[in-house]
């Protein structure tokens, strides 16, 4: 994955931010909406596209477009930087392939300990019973 190539494919859109903020919110378009077309990307290989589309399927639209918003700051430029960093981190985490788990054998001492405990609980329960006459 080459971050520089992917950043060139991003599309940004400035929108008026919602919520409290008074006149600034009403006048200035400080919220940034980032969109990235995963399926039609030239900088990603087919394997990377499938990995991203599987891991981020809840965040993708039906057309395979990833949309991220940021309205944390009053500055449009800072919001653009924040959402770009967030996007790159999200893509990097999606491309990580987890290691396969190696099933380990249960140690002999653990098995023996479990059987011994079962035997002792069994004996205590047997001792609680009334003796046969």
TrEMBL record:
Keywords associated with the record: Hydrolase
Family matches, as InterPro entries: Pep_chain_release_fac_I (IPR000352), Pep_chain_release_fac_I_sf (IPR045853)
EC number(s) reported in the record: 3.1.1.29
Broadest EC class assigned to this enzyme: hydrolase
Keyword Hydrolase belongs to the record: yes
Source superkingdom: Bacteria
Annotated spans, Disordered: 112-133
GO molecular function: peptidyl-tRNA hydrolase activity
Domain spans labelled Prokaryotic-type class I peptide chain release factors: 16-32
Entry similarity comment: Belongs to the prokaryotic/mitochondrial release factor family.
NCBIfam families assigned: PRK09256.1
Protein's name according to its UniProt entry: Aminoacyl-tRNA hydrolase
Source organism per UniProt: Flavobacterium azooxidireducens
């Amino acid at each position: 994955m080459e971050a520089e190539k992917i950043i060139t494919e991003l599309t940004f859109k400035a929108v008026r931010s919602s919520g409290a903020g008074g006149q600034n919110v009403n006048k200035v378009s400080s919220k940034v909406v980032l969109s990235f077309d995963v399926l039609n990307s030239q900088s990603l290989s087919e394997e990377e596209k499938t990995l991203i589309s599987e891991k981020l399927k809840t965040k993708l639209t039906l057309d395979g477009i990833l949309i991220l918003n940021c309205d944390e700051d009053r500055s449009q430029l800072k919001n653009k930087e924040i959402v770009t960093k967030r996007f790159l981190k999200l893509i990097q985490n999606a491309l990580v392939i987890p290691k396969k788990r190696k099933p380990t054998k249960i140690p002999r001492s653990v098995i023996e300990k479990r059987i011994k405990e079962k035997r002792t609980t069994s004996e205590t329960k047997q001792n609680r019973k009334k003796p046969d006459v």
